[in-house]
Amino acid sequence: MSATIIDGKAFAEKVRTQVAAHVSRLKDEHGITPGLAVVLVGEDPASEVYVRNKGKQTLEVGMNSFEHKLPAEISEADLLELIDRLNNDPAVHGILVQLPLPGHLNSDLVINSIDPAKDVDGFHISNVGLLGTGQKSMVPCTPLGCLMMLRDHLGALSGLNAVVVGRSNIVGKPMAQLLLGDSCTVTIAHSRTKDLAEVCRRADILVAAVGRPEMIPGDWVKPGATVIDVGINRIPAPEKGEGKHRLVGDVEFASAAEVAGAITPVPGGVGPMTIACLLANTVTACCRANGLAEPEGLTA
Asked: What value does the mean pLDDT take over residues 9-34?
């Protein structure tokens, strides 16, 4: 293995330490405590674990955590009423509605009912438009975490060729916009891209966010490239026993690590950065709401 391993777990801890320092200053100098409200509808086990981790880390950095657990059968009108109350609550600076929502609820309607200034997931159509036109916005957490790691490892990104494999609204498209903002030359590729292997081989920065286990082998990677693997896929692992599984990314790690200059592992790469950037976004939203300078190093 020749690639440097980009340790997302360690980097996320560094980001949380920065967030905690900003929170402490906001309390000491301005008497303000950032607050994050998380709304969970239903009892999806994976979502419950994720929300619990968010609440725990929110409190650990000194912020206020407001959790709203709602029954799966809640009406759309009642959910929108709760969001309206949170929009108008000065103690709440960030609002996150955990997805997916039950089928009877319109996710787009719900997300777009959040005050864009409190939309710490960065999914509101206003934030999507602001990011796409290079204006100040709330940035989706996973792409923001990827950008932070790239800046930390590479320094200036200007002029580099970047390929983003995946065109989702949550990762692929905003990731491309962020890389454009740092003056990369950006290609958005996907599963139907002609000669995808050759497109990937041109990338100084290769971001894999397509959701297919180990789709990108090492011979698709340019020697010395920086590879950011956003994929989290569960595949059978019979070697661990019957019914066992293991997590893999969208990149075939072993072969890619022989070629790449640097690579994120799965697990332990991009994943830990998502909640850390959610906390960073909440501090940013708090500062903007109060007319204060944004936290340095925690925004796009």
From this structure: 97
Structure tokens at 159: 């002029």
For 225, the token pair is 């490239």
Rounded to whole angstroms, the Cα distance separating 274 from 59 reads: 16
- CA dist 12 and 272 (Å) reads 6
Nearest partner of 26 among 293, 300, 231, judged by Cα: 293
Helix count and strand count (H, E) for the chain: 10, 11
Q: Is the pLDDT of residue 44 over 90?
A: no
Residue 197 CB contacts under 8 Å (≥ 6 apart), including other chains: 219, 220
The pTM of the full predicted model, rounded to 2 decimals, is 0.95
User: Which residues are catalytically annotated?
Assistant: 54, 98, 121
Contacts of 5 (CB under 8 A, 6+ apart): 257, 262, 263, 264, 265
Distance CA 112, CA 92 (A): 17
Residue 270: strand, helix, or coil? coil
